[in-house]
Amino acid sequence: MLPTGTVTFLFSDIEGSTERWETHGDAMKTAIARHEELVRQAISRYDGYIFKTLGDAFCAAFATAPSALSAALDAQRALGTEDFSAVRGLRVRIGLHTGYADERDSDYFGPAVNRVMRLMSIGHGAQVLLSDATRALVQNEAPPDTIFTDLGVHRLKDLAQPERVWQVTLNGHKSDFPPLKSLDALPNNLPIQVTSFRGREADLEDLKLHLGEYRLITLVGAGGVGKTRLAVQLGAEVAERFADGVWISDLGPIVESVVTSVVAKTLGVSQAQVRLTDDCITQALKSRQLLLVLDNCEHVLETAAALADAIHCHCPDVRIVATSRQALGVRGEKVVRLDSLAVPDKLANVHPAAALEFGAVALFCDRASLVDRSFRLGADNAHIVSDICRRLDGIPLAIELAAARVNVMSVRNLAQRLDERFKVLTGGSRTALPRQKTLGALFDWSYDLLGSEERVLFNRVAIFAGSFTHDAAAFVCADDGDEQGDVLDLLASLTDKSLMVVDTSGNQERYRMLESTRQYALGKLRTSGEYERLARRHADYFCSFARQPESRFGAIPLNEWLARFEPDLENFRAAMEWALVKGQDVALGACVAVALQMYWWHGGVEAEGLRWIQLALHKIDEAEQPEVATQLRQALALLLSRVLYS
């Protein structure tokens, strides 16, 4: 019987099979046939359903988790006693995970299937790995000689929430394995994603092939089309190729003057020199093998292009993937234009299984099921969902914004609301809807559905560059008399509506907007007339934050002290940009630069610190602010001594 609903999946494959085929071709035919026989017997013995085989890999589903575990252990026991010496041994790795999955045409789809595949891939031959969900279901029903070992929390290559991984062995059998091949074991700074990667699987495979041929690739596409998500997923997929890691540098929240500093900081390149240049980065990277992702280049195009060109010309083992709304325009650049997700043709009766083959529909259903667990694509709504995705031009961000509403309205009502919005925007002709207006229309629609307090906070939090805490939002964005709890509730509401992203992996939650969303919100903030007032409150808050007694250098261990400043570096930069570069309050900007002097030194950004200090000294009126000028000179002397010492 084909298990449905909540299913336990067993995925297996042979470690190092490609090499064995190349060196022991004839013997491998016999070995693979015997391996297949033993694995099939173990799965069948416990009523498992083999729904797919890929080469030497098995994909099976079980109605219960204990049955899946018994099959896995039986398979390993049988394989372990077989003589595979003719091919220098045959070692099979197995992963088990339990979750809900959609079954279509005797195959399974959904996050649970992706997760078990990722789980298996981080293991080693002869190892059986369990997700935390499966371990909870089998621990009390496992054979008495079964040993469960907690291998800790690991990031899988789908980049969604980390998974606690368990190893299961039988007493007396091999239990000592190398460290898991998860992202935690590979050098990288790839961010955790709160949602799964859906809709661009084919684009991802194409990009992997391009990366083998080209050293500089630029993903070009409109805002919200999914350039960043694809680049991050690519980094996770190919991390094992690069001995020195995969590093992403987000240029979205910064200004052109600090591009080199931001990239150098990402790559760990020393800034202990008076002037940081592109040459400093290329010298540091000449002997390194890594992938660098330059994300959101469009507003710093000239500087980003110059840096990418320098690295491309002088660092043969460095690959660069840039994301931008337009090409960098440098030599040797491979431009990959990212179109919207595929949508079904305009047909009245589209079959649900056929609709899910389109990336836009798959993405909508995945995101809709996150906010409404009962949501299913069926014959009654497949044509409506397809129409929604088609009307949204297959733009991923627009689809996610719309899907976030299914917990408060039916898809039929959702489609009607969208129809009304677009008719107003296009004079009644849906066919005249320009692609570039779709995302703006969706933002308008989502914005109009917000309550008045939600709109105000949505506008105001756009003043933050990068991420921010609830405390920062409460200080900067709340009106006098507002309770901090009100701000927290509003942030949670905006997150539920996919207008905000929250990272809960650290000691304190941090919120942020996607860059397209932030640019829309900034436009609303400027229109409201509150921009300058919010910018001042923002600069005041981060000046005060940098000068807090608990933030004083030496009060806590250096790594903890640096960790207080790192997440808000973009906000400090934004505050100084507003105060110093735009000249809105030079004294305030100077105070921020001085307060960060020890961070400039110990945070590895001395060259950038020198630039801010020198800019403040150049602009400060010493007659009016003699104390601040003195502090600036002291900070300058400190940083110059650091450079000379280095």
Strand content: 5-15%
Gyration radius over CA: 27 Å
- Report the end-to-end length measured between terminal Cα atoms: 70 Å
- Assembly state of the chains shown: single chain
What spatial form do the alpha-carbon principal axes imply? Answer: globular
- Kindly report the name of the CATH homologous superfamily of the largest domain: Nucleotide cyclase, GGDEF domain
Helix content: 40-55%
* Helix/strand/pairing category: alpha/beta
CATH architecture title of the largest domain: 2-Layer Sandwich
Reading off the top of the CATH hierarchy, the class of the largest domain is best stated as Alpha Beta
Count up the domains: 4
- Find the CATH topology of the largest domain: Alpha-Beta Plaits
Can you count the helices?
27
Largest sheet: 8 strands, mixed
Structure description:
Helices cover 48% and strands 14% of the residues. The termini are far apart. The model is unreliable at 424-436 (pLDDT under 50). Helix 12 (359-371) crosses helix 13 and helix 26 (606-619) runs antiparallel to helix 27 (626-645). The longest helix has 21 residues, at 25-45. The relative contact order is 0.06. The strands form 3 sheets. Strands 1, 2, 3, 4, 5, 6, 7 and 8 form an 8-stranded mixed beta sheet that branches. Strands 10-11-12-9-13 form a 5-stranded parallel beta sheet, sandwiched between helices. It has 646 residues and is an alpha/beta fold.
